[in-house]
Design a protein that fits this description.
Elements: E1 3-10, H1 32-44, E2 50-55, H2 59-71, E3 76-78, H3 122-139, E4 144-149, H4 151-161, E5 180-186, E6 189-196
Parallel strand pairs: 1-4, 2-3, 2-4
Antiparallel strand pairs: 1-5, 5-6
Length: about 210
């Protein structure tokens, strides 16, 4: 039996002085804190048997993955399936509890929270993330892989794998900045999910990541 671990890493803190939901918008880089978080995770994984590092194409994910790939002398790969979910509120100041979701102008986008109607369907996110995870598992079979992605995609995949409903309260996500949600495989069979916060915890309401 061959054991493989796929670490799903949420990127570090982003420089976002205007507080918008940045989603897939280009140009959002790591903050100085985010850069330190990326280095902390790289140090945490330094003694791990990492043989494959892959990231979302977005800048913040690439910058988070860089120190890990560098410390293991690996070429950084990119997988579009690890990208942040699409969202109609990109570029706007919309966050949990700020009142924006009570604005009547936003109501047409909020008609179906279970799919959801404001962005990429949860099931679609789970399926593309699972495909990316299995591709990374195959690339690192018998070793460990790191996939750098974003909060909602990582959390959606975890809920999918745990057999939980995909719609949820964003304030209850266990997916801090620079956290690791690790999938443990025996051959191709998922046997365990573990979670770690090498860079410490962060506010789960920080969802635009």
């Amino acid at each position: 039996m061959t054991k493989t671990i796929v670490h799903l890493l949420r990127h570090g803190e982003v420089h976002n002085p205007t507080g918008v939901l940045y989603g897939r918008l280009p140009g959002f880089r790591l903050s100085e804190t985010g850069k330190r978080q990326a280095l902390t995770v790289a140090e945490y994984l330094a003694d791990h048997d990492i043989t494959h590092v892959v990231a979302s194409p977005l800048q913040r994910a690439q910058e988070t993955a860089g120190p890990i790939a560098g410390s293991h002398r690996l070429e950084l790969a990119t997988d579009d399936r690890l990208i942040e979910s699409a969202n109609v509120f990109e570029g706007k100041r919309v966050s949990v509890g700020d009142g924006a979701l009570r604005d009547p102008r936003n109501w047409p986008y909020l008609r179906d929270p279970f799919t959801p109607s404001w962005g990429e369907p949860y099931l679609q996110i789970a399926h593309r993330m699972l495909a990316a995870a299995h591709r990374a598992r195959a690339a690192a079979v018998g070793h460990e892989a790191v996939c750098v992605s974003h909060q909602l995609p990582v959390w959606t995949l975890r809920r999918y794998l745990e057999g939980k409903r995909l719609w949820h309260d964003p304030r209850n996500r266990q997916c801090s900045l620079a956290s690791l949600t690790s999938l443990h495989f025996d051959d191709e069979r998922l046997v365990r999910i573990s979670y770690a916060e090498p860079a410490g915890t962060s506010d789960p309401k920080n969802t635009g990541a």
